[in-house]
Amino acid sequence: DAKTTQPPSMDCAEGRAANLPCNHSTISGNEYVYWYRQIHSQGPQYIIHGLKNNETNEMASLIITEDRKSSTLILPHATLRDTAVYYCIVRVAGGSQGNLIFGKGTKLSVKP
Amino acid sequence: GAVVSQHPSRVICKSGTSVKIECRSLDFQATTMFWYRQFPKQSLMLMATSNEGSKATYEQGVEKDKFLINHASLTLSTLTVTSAHPEDSSFYICSARVLASGTQYFGPGTRLLVL
Known about the structure:
The structure holds two protein chains of two kinds. By secondary structure, chain A is an all-beta fold. Helix content of chain A is 0%, strand content 46%. Chain A is built from no helices and nine strands. Chain A has strands at 9-13, 18-23, 31-38, 45-50, 55-56, 61-64, 70-75, 84-92, 106-111. Chain B is an all-beta fold. In chain B, strands 2, 4, 5, 6, 9, 10 and 11 form a seven-stranded mixed β-sheet that branches. A four-stranded antiparallel β-sheet of chain B has the order 1-3-8-7, with no helix packed on it. The termini of chain B are far apart. In chain B, 34% of the residues are buried. The A-B interface holds A 32, 34, 36, 38, 41-46, 49, 87, 91-105 and B 1, 4, 6, 31-32, 34, 36, 43-46, 49, 91, 93, 95, 97, 99-109, 111.
C-alpha cells in the first residue's frame, strides 16, 4: 500500500473547523483514501473514505485533490471530544485486497 | 457504522499463563478479521490477518506459535497469547472487514498486563 505523510500535531480552537492534511503522492489508481481516528485508550474509529470525488458524512468531509496526491479531512465544528490521533491511510477497497497499515498520524488537540 | 466488540477489555495475568481475547462482529459477518498490537505512544502494528475457516497469516516477526488465532465462524475470531511474559503487555485491538465495502471497523481494544 502507498505511504502517507501527515503533520505530527495540530491545534484547533473549539467550534472552529479543523483541516487535517495528508499527502499520498504515490497513490495508485485503485487505492482509496481512508481516515480513522483514535481517541486515547480506545480502538480506532472509522471516519470516512473516498476515491477521487469529495465525500461528506455526518462526521466529516473529505476533499481529494484532482491529481489525488493529497487530501484534507475537515471537521466543520471541532469539539473537545474530537481531540484524537487522526490517521490517513491508502489502500485498495472492496473484496479482500489490502490491509490497513497505520502510520504515526496527526495528533489533533482541540482547545477551549 | 458496523460494531465490533472485544472481550475482555482489560486483563492482568501472571507470567507463563495463557490469555484468550475474543473479537466479535455484532451486526455483520466478517470473513476477514485482523489483530493489531499497540505499545504506549506508538501506532498500531498489524500482527496477523485471520480468515474464516483457514489459517491466519502472520506479519513478519510475529510468532505464530505464541499468538494463536482461531476464526471459527463469520462473527468470531480469538487471539490466544500463550505463555505470556511481561514484554507481551500491550493494547491488543481487533478489526473486522465488511466484505462488500472493504471498510474495516475496530473493536475497543484489550489491555493486557503480564506481571
